[in-house]
Amino acid sequence: MVGDSRGAGGNGAGTTRRRRAAAVLWCLVLVTAGAGGVAAASAATTGGGSGELTAASGVAGGPEAGAAALTAGDAAASAAGGVSADGNDTATGDGSANATWTVDANSTAGSPLTPAPTGDLAVSNPHLVAYVDDDAATRGGLGTFTLQAAAPDGDGAVDLLYGGGDAWSSYLSVRVDDRTYVTGREVLGARNMDGYVTQRPTVDGDRIVTEWTLPEDVVVTQTVTLDGPRARFAVEVENADGWDHDVRARFLFDYQLGAADGSPVQQNGSRVTTETVVDNPGVGGANGANAANASVGNASLDAWRVGDDPSASGPAGVATARTAPTRVAFTRWNPAYGSPYAYDADPDAEFYNASRDEGDGAGLVYYEFGTVAAGESAVARTAYGPDVPERSAALYVPDQTTRGGTVTVGGASLPYGGFLAVYDDDGDLRGVSEELPAAGVSNVTVTLDDPLLASESLSVVAYRDTNGNDRPDLGAAGGDDPYAGEDGPTTERAYATLAGPFGAATDFGDQTTDGRTVTVDSVNLSAGGFVALRTPSGAADDPGSIVGVSEYLRPGTHENVRVEAYRVPGGQFTRLSFGEDQRLVAVPYRDTNDNKLYDFLDSDGAADRPYAGGDAVDDEAYVTVVHGGSADDDDGGSGDSGGHAVVSDTEPTYYQVDLAAGQPIDNLGERLYAEEDRLVRWALGNTDDGISGRGTAWPDESVRACVDAGQVRREGATARVSFTVADGCSNVTLTFASYTMVDADFSPETADQQVLFDATTEAFGPGEHTVTVALPDDE
């Protein structure tokens, strides 16, 4: 800005700037939040009517009307939500005596604002642009920040914090024991944090994350997140030291409203223009029940507003706090900037002069975490943005019948995106949806981590992705907030009737096998699922007792179901066959989450529970193991049709075949494809019997998203595998390799004796592909 000059200095001196006076066009909102979880979640599970939309949901009418509105992505107008039927609620008014403008704060459409070309790191949406200094050579300091919003006339962006998009005058302070650290590079009396940065400012979706590790081994993470018309600032401190530390934090916000650098502050109905401090503000008013804590000097501070008189037309500011900050101070920027942490306010000093309509104001928000024990952490959050109304969410959840593993939300309108969480009547979280877009969605399936075992009432709560990390953090310190309705979190209740009765039966006869596969004579599953093998000493609901499981079986009766030994998703086994005669129990399991994958082990017994009935549905058999061949090999083995093993006169050559992402591994004794999360399919076999065992691995998520592979098959002296590369995936490098083995079973102890026999490696694009590899012979 013309005439601006700044230098470092202490409290009340040393840093000066002259700013052009201007009419106040913007009124801002500052929202504070401290450490602590989302306490409203369990409380939100009461109230509301089954199958009907409450006023807090922002939708008028019954289930049919609600579903229709939500499917279209709109919400009918209501007192709680204030959302018009077209989904665009506008706020109009005068920002000054001579200015009239309109802010469409609720629309989630439109292009993101274009950041100013200052060179700072930036994230933007249609409402805001947040900037963080990521250049150690600039004046600001890594992590200093500023903020702009959409201009009132819709032409570009205007300042909400000083700088015109150049981040430097607003910064974070952290005090550890008796030492103060600041992100501001020109602040005297404290250590600048640039030299301790362990993660330079990094864009992660709608947020910018910066991390420092201070000499006391206290890890500090600052996150600036755009959430609709709010920018949320979070500081997390983690004590990675072996000693306890006293930790405190302070945000300094250098207020700037458009061209106006000085503005009054509205606090508890009073117009504040001189330096004011509120210590230990209570959380009362419309947002909490702690108003009784308010006293002289400890006022309830639900809201303060940076801008003109609240009686004037135009947007008004609202601030809320789940956990109040330790102190809030409204000060002059110049001396506050030069004071790295503690600040002595002068009640006679003006940060805004009404007669000249000018000033230079700032806000200081303090959080004293106290003693942070070794290995513990604490989080504080505050938010800042233009004071425009925020849209409420809307839900429609019908009564429904379920198999117990999922709940369907008929419709949801989440104006800023987020998640849907399902709670039971005890307030326990049962499941959370995938992240949902900022739009109206219908028929959202929520998989329950804890499946229903009986019919019961459930509540669905709508959450915003408040901390911008694209994952649900419900109830965690610094986590996600529920969408707010008129009477609390946006919640809908419904009654879930458990489908049934579920029935299953197994017939499992004594048999002789080569130890790699076992056959269950028949299994009947009323709702589909799996048949698994467990040891008699274990229990059906004990994941540690499972030693084999079938592929997914559709509802009905299935005969001669093959179960491969130790091929269990989520299992950690070092052998691939039963090595000795033993008794096994065949147990039927439900597919409770309806994904046709056996998730019993991966979920630690929460998903894909066994069919009820115990001994009535299980069956036990004695399995005799004879090594050397198997009659039920489907790749051309030499067994007879009777299902008994045939012993070869000479020892065959054993081999292993792997389909994996990336390049081949020459020596499996040094590393394994599975350990590197890139094994897709595998098979074991020998020259007498062909392929005797095969299975599916669990590679990295990026590989799973791009590659869908079939089973490995033998064709004479070669093995082949077919797979499909998904659309949108290109240059996917895959290796198909064969190895000799010293024995029939794979073992990490003998992996260094395996020899790479043949391999083919190629980069594949979208579509179907087939590759082959030579198999070892007897020579």
Automatic annotation (TrEMBL):
Origin superkingdom: Archaea
Domain (DUF7282) ranges: 394-496, 506-624
Pfam families: DUF7282
Chain spans, region Disordered: 465-488, 628-648
Name of this protein: DUF7282 domain-containing protein
Provenance organism: Candidatus Halobonum tyrrellensis G22
